[in-house]
Amino acid sequence: MTNTRIPLAGVIGHPIAHSKSPRLHGHWLKTYGIAGHYIPMDVAPQDLETVLRTLPKAGFVGVNVTVPHKEAVMAIADQITDRATLIGAANTLIFREDGKIHADNTDGYGFMENLHSGAPDWDPKSGPALVLGAGGAARAVISALLEAGVPEIFLSNRTRLRAEKLRDDFGKRVQVIDWVQAGNVVEDADLVVNTTSLGMVGNSELRVPMDGLKPSAVVTDLVYAPLKTKLLLTAEEAGCTTVDGLGMLLHQAVPGFERWFGERPTVDSATRAAALR
Ligand code: ATR
Ranges for the Shikimate dehydrogenase substrate binding N-terminal domain (predicted)? Predict the structure, then answer.
């Protein structure tokens, strides 16, 4: 009998009910006529390693990992890509046939693909970027921006120490700006990125003054609920090019889908609609 196992993948988080990934991957599986499944899995932290070591035995070819497991999987994985090591977290795991778990982080890739597709005229080398927030998402964004050749990054976070830690990890092109001073460097920025959770439904608004925004600047928000955050609305009014955060979620999923199911999926309007459904 030939081995015709149907490939399985999914997303592990805790909680997981609100993840858009099952709809997104489900859409691609249907679009490309692939006999596979992608399912949400709510796994408590203490069960993470047992689950990850068991899933390959049940036909899983890999999983996405989300909050709160993205850092914890780094200690479990057998192989880690350089970019995941630099970020200190992984979001995409590949279960290899030899039983080894390979960990990658595609958040920075997703961020950059989204930015290039939403703001095709943006030139990374044109000038400084202002990054708001210094959490896990900021680490992925900063590593991608530095790799793309952004000359200088102003990094501002409510908890200054966290921003200083990032500066220590990423080097001198990152300059820490006090949270209350962030508005003062807006006029120098060719790119503004919100990586904080401020502006998300149910959270407070981002209150960094944006009066100094240059009309030539590109403004992007990692928050995608709502799709048009106050930051993006303000930026639109200032004449800036804006890029919403949903595209990052879609693009970061591409490498995993390709590795697991053998087809490189396209991100288009149908993909967006499927994720929002
Ligand atoms: P993620 O992985 O999405 O980056 P995180 O690591 O929890 O999540 O980081 C959340 C970010 O939003 C941090 O930069 C956090 O600032 P602190 O480091 O000071 O906590 C920021 N953030 C969350 N709530 C905030 C608030 N009310 N005011 C300012 N920043 C806030």
Answer: 11-93
